[in-house]
Design a protein that fits this description.
With 489 residues, the protein is of the alpha/beta class. The chain folds into two domains: 3-262 and 465-484, 3-Layer(aba) Sandwich (Aldehyde Dehydrogenase, Chain A, domain 1); 266-453, Aldehyde Dehydrogenase, Chain A, domain 2 (3-Layer(aba) Sandwich), CATH 3.40.309. The protein has 15 helices and 20 strands. It has helices at 4-13, 52-70, 74-90, 92-103, 107-127, 166-178, 191-203, 219-227, 241-251, 276-288, 305-320, 340-355, 387-390, 406-414, 429-438, and strands spanning 18-20, 23-25, 32-37, 42-48, 134-137, 143-151, 155-158, 182-185, 211-213, 234-238, 257-261, 266-270, 298-304, 359-362, 377-380, 397-403, 421-425, 443-446, 465-466, 479-487. A seven-stranded mixed β-sheet has the order 14-15-16-13-12-17-18, sandwiched between helices. α15 (429-438) links the parallel β17 (421-425) and β18 (443-446). α4 packs across α5 (107-127) and α4 packs antiparallel against α7 (191-203). Bound molecules: NADP nicotinamide-adenine-dinucleotide phosphate (NAP). NADP nicotinamide-adenine-dinucleotide phosphate (NAP) is lined by residues 158-163, 167, 185, 187-189, 219-220, 223, 238-240, 243, 246-247, 261-264, 295, 392, 420, 460, 465.
């Protein structure tokens, strides 16, 4: 089924300009860039191409709004978030269509992203009114230790293309709740969802200047001057570890507070005692969500030799039966990858593994255009030396290896610079706890292929990041703890 008319209507009603100080406007230099539909390779529309000058204007607006926004009663901030949650939920269909058009995932997945993304606003609307301090008698009894939590100040939020609604809401929600103003720099490939979100927040009553949006095709030159500007107090970034390192280095200049949600290389472990059907269900979610383009995607499968054949057969069956096509067509489960570069990278990783001795069980060959499609792929006997086992795949490819010794498997699972997520399927409680305690990742899914939850802290160890988003700690990333020493005679 084609959505041509609705597509035109949704594109037509989405803002295409920069949002600065409450007004959508063209870039100062009048430049625009094209937003592409990855299912067809055609241009959807043009969007304002912001410059450093525009970004500094946005910082000026955020800085001017900061003190009055910080003084806005928490209940008012909460109610804006709650209204935005409501509007997002009511408009699920049009937002989902926009996500699918610019990012490629199926409509069903885009609807799920709207539900997930909106939930951050509901969660943080509840947190806004529970920002607590502390009061203690100091140990010597001669004074009081008073702690208060205050908004950190204007924030720069940089988000990736793979989750174009929920990555912004996971940062905007706590920033609004804490009383921070902000500049959002969405990914070049998916600016439209961010612009629609900004319109919804304005409709929900967010005052001018609290959220500013700068879309651009030159992320480095546009964000660099902000990072070196003393008015900026916080950088929250979600994206690749490579860009995260650059931003951490730049942030050293002004000792800018940073939160970093970076790349993953998640192991998916199936033990000999696992419920295999449940493990296959979990693998389908952990591997195929977002067409494999997720930081928490299962990147390496470690199967106990006793169950490897059964699991592989069942996974191969499910993967080969998935409907591939344009995400706007109902029933499609696997959309295109984001661009030709990503498709070619996935193809190169698979080719490298096959050259080193891996066997293709299904898939393994990129489709010819239009669009950037790569089929669901299962590979067995993947050597640990192959690029597939070491790099973040960001595609619908499941590389399988087997193990018999738990300790050896654990060493292999932890043998990566990443530490975002791991998945374990076992019915043995002791083993589950042992593995959860010894896997070097910020999140562990036990008999569960989906760990994302706005009510839980999301984030990584090692080079997967700094800080946590969501849960009861998510708001702390946007708050300063101030200690007041009160002398008592
Ligand atoms: P990316 O290339 O690092 O880009 C992420 C964002 O940073 C985009 O907005 C990008 O702008 C911007 N950017 C790129 N270079 C920059 C620079 N020099 N200075 C400032 N900003 C810059 O990552 P991606 O390809 O969009 O996203 C995929 C990556 O994100 C994967 O590694 C994935 O694991 C990670 N991710 C992590 C999480 C998490 O929570 N841990 C969640 C989702 C994704 P442009 O779009 O203009 O390049």
């Amino acid at each position: 089924m084609s959505n041509t008319i609705t597509e035109a209507a949704v594109l037509n009603k989405t803002e295409k300009g920069l949002l600065i100080g409450g007004r959508f406007r063209a870039a100062a230099a009048g430049r625009t860039f094209a937003v592409e539909n990855p299912a067809t390779g055609t241009t959807l529309c043009e969007v304002a191409d912001g410059s450093a000058e525009d970004a500094l204007d946005a910082l000026g607006a955020a800085s001017a709004a900061q003190s009055s926004w910080a003084a806005t009663p928490p209940r008012e901030r909460a109610e804006i978030l709650r209204r935005a949650y409501q509007l997002l939920t009511e408009r699920t269909e049009e937002i989902a269509l926009l996500i699918t058009l610019e990012m490629g995932k199926s409509l069903a997945e885009s609807r799920a992203e709207v539900a997930y993304g909106a939930e951050f606003f509901r969660w943080f609307s509840e947190e806004a009114v529970r920002i607590r301090g502390d009061w203690t008698v100091n140990p010597g009894g001669s004074g009081r230790i008073v702690l208060m939590r205050q908004p950190v100040g204007p924030c720069l939020l940089i988000t990736p293309w793979n989750v174009p609604l929920a990555m912004p809401t996971r940062k905007i929600g706590p920033a609004i709740a804490a009383g921070c103003t902000m500049i959002l720099k969405p990914a070049e490939q998916t600016p439209l969802t961010a612009l629609m979100l900004a319109g919804i927040l304005a409709e929900a009553g967010l005052p001018d200047g609290v959220l500013n949006v700068v879309t651009t095709s030159s992320p480095g030159p546009v964000t660099e001057p902000l990072i070196h500007d003393e008015r900026l107090r916080k950088l929250s970034f979600t994206g690749s570890t490579e860009v995260g390192r650059i931003l951490i280095a730049s942030s050293a200049d002004k000792v800018l507070r940073t939160s970093m949600e970076l790349g993953g290389n998640g192991p998916f472990i199936v033990c000999a005692d696992a419920d295999i059907d449940a493990a296959v269900d979990g693998a389908m979610i952990a591997k195929m969500r977002n067409i494999g383009q997720a930081c928490i995607a299962a990147n390496r499968f470690y199967l106990h030799a006793d169950v490897a054949e059964e699991f592989t057969d069942k996974l191969t069956d499910r993967m080969s039966g998935m409907a591939v096509g344009s995400g706007v067509d109902e029933g499609v489960e696997v959309g295109p990858l984001i661009d030709a570069g990503q498709r070619d990278k996935v193809a190169a990783l698979v080719d490298d593994a096959v050259r080193r001795g891996a066997h293709i069980r299904t898939g393994g060959k990129a489709a010819s255009g239009p669009g950037y499609f790569y089929p669901p792929t299962v590979l067995t006997d993947v050597p640990s030396s192959s690029r597939l086992a070491r790099e973040e795949i960001f595609g619908p490819v499941a590389p399988i290896s087997t193990f018999t010794d738990e300790q050896e498997m654990l060493r292999a699972a932890n043998d990566t610079e990443s530490g975002l997520v791991s998945y374990v399927y076992t019915r043995d409680l002791d083993r589950a706890i042992r593995l959860a305690e010894n896997l070097e990742t910020g999140m562990v899914g036990i008999n569960q292929g989906l760990v994302s939850n706005p009510a839980a802290p999301f984030g990584g160890m090692k080079q997967s990041g700094l800080g946590r988003e969501g849960g009861s700690v998510g708001i702390d990333e946007y708050l300063e703890v101030k200690y007041v020493a009160v002398g008592v005679a």
